[in-house]
Amino acid sequence: MKQVFFIITVLVFQIMGWGQSQEKVFNPPTTDFISLSLQTHKGKLRFGVQDEYFLKSDGTYVSSRDEEYFEKDKQFSHNNASRHAFVELLKIRFKEDMFDVMDKDFFTERTQNMYEKDLKSHTAQQHVLALANALCNKQQSIRFFCNPKEEDCASGFQQDGYYNEPRNIRSWGGRGASEFQKLRAYTNFVKEKFPLVGKWAKTLYSDNVLEGYYVTRTNLGTYDFKNGGYWLNTYQFYNQGFLLKWYGLQPANSSERKLMHPNGSSILFKMLPEEAETFSEKSQQIFLVFDVSGYLNGLENYRADQLKTTFSLNSPVIEIYSDDGLTKKVGAININTMVSKTR
Q1: How crowded is residue 232: how many other Cβ atoms within 10 Å of its Cβ?
Q2: Any residues with CB less than 8 A from the CB of 147 and at least 6 apart, and which?
Q3: Helical packing angle, 194-202 and 179-192, nearest 10°
Q4: Ramachandran quadrant class, 183 (left: phi over 0; alpha: psi -120 to 50; beta: rest)
Q5: What average pLDDT score do residues 101-122 get?
Q6: Beta bridge pairs of residue 301
Q7: What superkingdom heads the lineage (predicted)?
Q8: Which of 91, 231, 246, 289 could disulfide-link 237, Cβ–Cβ 3.0 to 4.6 Å?
Q9: Taking the complete model, does pTM exceed 0.85, yes or no?
């Protein structure tokens, strides 16, 4: 019997080009799955707005004619797929009651009036489909999601070095598959691969706490000569990026609560006029970085299938950068001494 050695959350670091941060790689329990490569900042996970890879340190963008273009394009593809797969794995711990009653031998069809057990089974099966699409490498994707009778399996899947797009959810058995092909693909995955998926998921931040940096982006706006700086509007921070959302911030004191004023607030990024003129000619957006602890608190609801997350601040200092790679620091704001105003 072939023995599968399960590597518990082995972390591998890879240096990215143009001074970009290292990435944290979670190796899978089997080569049938892709590795997960997540962006970091100062050695910790990066949440919120991500580095889009195509901005060079000199401020210019990588062109499709550049020699490095395809390397960066593949890195983006891997990171995009990794973020999606990582979130899908984290959701498993909050659906144990569903997976416990999931039918592993037959599909549970969705009907208008379903018993709770059947609804849980159907929901779990849909999640298994999402996980299989997100985690399988090219060879296994062809096995579970290609119908050689109807499509060209060799050319119908992503090129080597590229990964499945999160929105591209293929059906069991592939295009035009019969009910026999669909069921065979599903049951084979559930019996052979899904136990490994469940074990892998349990190794990922089992205490539901993730240390890292939350990154948000905002427009520079108009310079305020009277106050000597730019007002940064916190309402622009909402709903941006990976895993954590701005509205999930849990203020710990009165200074932090100023950031979350219900009417919206603005904080002053101080800068001398002569510096601001030069800076504004080069940068229209800036990136704010918060040192945080993120918390996984369950699912918003079964229908939305979204993780419920919150976070707290580990430091009162907001670091400010002019590039999405976070290589050009242009200042900082201390929350405890910041100048703020409400809308």
Answers
A1: 24
A2: 173, 174, 175, 176, 177, 181
A3: 40
A4: alpha
A5: 95
A6: none
A7: Bacteria
A8: 246
A9: yes
Instruction: Kindly report the number of other CB atoms within 10 A of residue 285's CB atom.
Output: 13
Residue identified by tokens 């957006």 is: 285
Closest to 273 in 3D by CA, of 333, 328, 219, 222: 222
CA 162, 168, 170, 174 torsion-angle sign: negative
> Tens digit of pLDDT for each residue in 42-94?
999 999 999 988 876 666 778 888 888 888 999 999 999 999 999 999 999 99
| Burial (CB count within 10 angstroms: exposed 0-12, middle 13-18, buried 19+), residue 187 | middle
Q: Determine the Cα–Cα distance for residues 281 and 284; give it in Å rounded to an integer.
A: 8
In this structure, what token pair is assigned to residue 202? 């349990």
Residue showing tokens 């090219």 = 138
Query: Residue 23 and residue 46: Cα distance in Å, rounded?
Result: 9
| Residue listed under structure tokens 């399960």 | 6
Per the structure block, which two tokens stand in for 238? 């909402």
User: How would DSSP label each residue in 63-106?
Assistant: PTTSTTHHHHHHHHHHHHHHHHHHHHHHHGGG-HHHHHH--SSS
Predicted confidence at residue 16, as pLDDT, reads 40
* Residue for token pair 């709770």: 116
Strand pairing category for 44-48 and 209-219: parallel
Q: Which two tokens stand for residue 308?
A: 């419920």
